[in-house]
Amino acid sequence: MSALLWLREVTREEIAWTKARKADIGLAIALFVGVVAALLSSETTLGFTRDEGYYFKAAELYFGWFEDLWRFLGQGDVLGAFDTKVIDKHWSYNHEHPVLMKTAFALSWGLLKEWLGLFDLNSTAFRFPGMLMGGLSTALVFAFSRALKLSKTASLVAALLWVSMPRVYWHMHLACFDIAVCAAHLWLVLAYYKGRRTTRGAIVVGLAFGLAAAVKHNVLVTPAFFVLHWALCEARGFLREKSGLRIPALPLSFFSMAILGPIVFVLHWPYLWPDILKRVGWYLGFHLNHEHYPILWFGDLLERPPFPVSFPFVMSAVTIPLPILILFGVSTALASVVAARFLFARLNGGARAAETTLVPLGDPQQEPSGSVAVLLLLNVAFPFLLIALPSSPIFGGTKHWLNALPFLCILSAWTLSEGAERFRRWWASRSPKAEALWATSRTPSVLLVGALCVVPAFWLSARVHPYGLGAYNVVTGFARGAANVGFQRTFWGHEPRKALPLINERAKPNARISFGDTNRDDHKMYVRDGLLRKDIHITGGPSRAHVSAVQPQGEFKDQWLKTLTDWEVNGPDHVVHLEGVPLVTVTFRE
Amino acid sequence: MSVRLDDRTVAALLLGPVVLGGLISLVGLALEGGDVPADEDYVALAAAMDKTSFDPAQDRLVILPAWSLRPLVAFKRFPWISGDDLAQRPMHRVRDLYLVVEPDGEGALDAVQTVWAAPETIAASGPARLLKVSTGARTVVDDLAARLDQAQVQIVSSKETVPCDQRRGTGFGCKGRKGWQRVTRERLLVSENGQEVIWAHPPPKGERLELTWPATRLDDELVVRAGFTRTGSNWAKAPVRLRVAVGGEEVATLERPVAFDFAVDRVDTRRFKGRTLPVTLTIHTRDNGKAHFAFDLYTAAAKSAWPGDAS
């Protein structure tokens, strides 16, 4: 009888676990679908960035290789597409970045638009995989939070914190890699957290690392964090012997990252195949010596190192919505305390410290919260510290440390849970018989404070769209305040899209347009997608142009003034602006 | 020593600042919305400006904050100057300043009021206002920058003299020299939002750029404004030196360090007052790499046109 009872209990648990898991999967899918749907609807007003122009072109070239591959196979020539000349013809363009995302852009355009006709615009088809990564990153924040045993509500708040930040949401629209690498980084760390102790999990970690590296180089150092985490939090048995230092057995996942990671990386990128070492060396060298682009900083135009160490911290402080910023700070402090206590206890004889918090981070039976805190903090700290180096390029607004933010969102959800649990316990202690909502559940507190964080963020996001790169928070006084202080108002050349109907209406036939930061490949896409008249050609500076659409800030302000001087005009005909802050001046030459 | 905090304190520490931040953010977002003038506001103010006694020969329009450009669409028919450092710039050329002031321009307006009289409000529309400030009578006597086309320009060295007499836009190019070796009147980024000045890139080491206005009417002072553009301030390698001569006599030697500062020098020319003499400006440097440089030059009667001057 007791065996039957036990079986019934196990089955109930199994059913409950399966239901919970299905609910989680359902929520993750809902988040994914919701974010992608939102991005598709808000993408239509967002102009093309400079880098997107390059990636549109790259994606089409890469798709050409797949067409060649198909053609060669059809002719029975299995190796034809792998000839160096054929590879270089298609893959040599833009070989400073790996090609996982660009290949996705290519296949989305080539298959979903050209073949199946699912998209009207080429640009939307190219951008679609970027949006999918936006949805995926949001779902992964939720999934990681749930993997750390945070409640569904808290995990949902974590995901909403991530997607509600204006600059994050804006980046999710693009055919670029910055959000994709956030998703890849998240998946890598999640894979490491969950699977590092099993053989199967270690293989997944190795594959995840290879795929993450195939998105963008930001994650190349991540294995070092895992090594550091292992050394600080898990390794036992370091022994100094007469013959030297005895290192304990290394986790299998380190080897899988070291072996599988490069294999996956090389396999994904045909350009590398003809000369792997030389071409990988070039790729790494390019990013170690990246050129610098000007950035406006408190009224100064910073063009070369040394750059201010405070740059990533100040930029985060003025761009992340205030309540989220504060929550990030509080979470970092809490995680640091928990991590420090854990490390201190480990350092002093290895006795396990009691959990500092009421809400653990992860499963304390498997791993102390302090160890998980160390893992997450390492992945938060490095992106900031790297950009804080005076020699690091600081162009790109806030995108170069974006991949720290999802981990901050997860820590924030945990912090909210801890605060809510403390509040609940205190409320319940005021009256032992209290049955009020706040005494029995921490969900209302998490929801309320979470809402106070995400509502202003969504509001700001909606207000600045489609100029998310001009989003500043209440600390500076939003966009106008940032202009007063002398911060970069925008960058990347996407701003003129809103002015294109006016340009189409007023430009004379066969006009030449001086397009400022908007490059030739973007111009080509505007024409190709029917957003700009095809007889309007792009030219260099304003001297030979009939239309001038330039960004009056930073290094492009000269072009705006040159328009006034060369054309002998006294002002623009139209200004594209964000809350009155000029982003593009549009002038027509009579 | 361990610190024990009770649940209420921990909850307050973890959640309190976040709640406060959320409320501040919501209030800020709600209040910020009304700060942006509509296009119609500028049109209305421009119409009001048409009814004033604005004289394009001696008055100027200014928009505050200086970064705002939208008003220019409606105000294009009025000559304007940028709102950069208004209180520090000499206003000999200007009788009245007409200021379009929108939210965030109050700081610059306050600075203007410390130099000149309180402004008079002409009109208001939405959050934007049109004000008028008198800087006193226009006292420029000979505007050499405006008469650039009458100057003789050359590059002089111990070996040769290169004429810069090829007409180029509003000024001159130099024979056999690249495009940057020109002297032309342009709007240049010598301040955050630019000013109309004379581009004058110094020639290579050992050479000097000479500009001579043969018949210049002189008065109390010769006002020299000069400095690097934004690009020059970031990339130039050496200071630029200027020499000013009146009737062949050197009256000032000035230096501009590599900095983003279009500084002003007032050269006392009272001993030449009332006379008409040649004025020569010489520009040179020991290293002219990326020396994007400009100047402004005129003679004037003294005027309380900047802080500290008696009216």
Describe the protein in words:
Chain A has 590 residues and is mainly alpha-helical. The model of chain A has no long low-confidence stretch (mean pLDDT 93). Chain A has helices spanning 2-42, 50-74, 84-91, 100-115, 122-147, 152-164, 166-171, 178-195, 199-213, 222-234, 252-268, 276-288, 311-319, 322-347, 369-388, 405-430, 437-440, 443-464, 478-485, 500-506, 520-528, 557-567; strands at residues 239-241, 244-246, 295-297, 300-302, 512-514, 537-539, 547-550, 574-578, 581-588. In chain A, strands 6-5-7-9-8 form a 5-stranded mixed sheet. Chain A has a two-stranded antiparallel ribbon with strand order 1-2. Chain A has a two-stranded antiparallel ribbon with strand order 3-4. Helices cover 60% and strands 6% of the residues of chain A. The relative contact order of chain A is 0.10. By secondary structure, chain B is of the alpha+beta class. Chain B has 5 helices and 18 strands. Chain B is globular. Chains A and B meet through helix 14, helix 16, helix 18, helix 19 and helix 22 of A and helix 1, helix 3, strand 10 and helix 5 of B.
Largest sheet of chain A: 5 strands, mixed
Mean pLDDT of chain B: 94
Q: Residue ranges of chain A: pLDDT <50 for 5 or more in a row?
A: none
Major sheet strand order of chain A: 6-5-7-9-8
Please estimate the helix content of chain A. Answer: 55-70%
Query: What's the alpha carbon Rg of chain A, rounded to whole Å?
Result: 26 Å
With helices defined by DSSP (H or I, 4 residues minimum), what is the helix count of chain A? 22
Main pleated-sheet profile of chain B: 8 strands, antiparallel
- How far the N terminus sits from the C terminus of chain A, by CA atoms, comes to 96 Å
Instruction: Tally the helices of chain B.
Output: 5
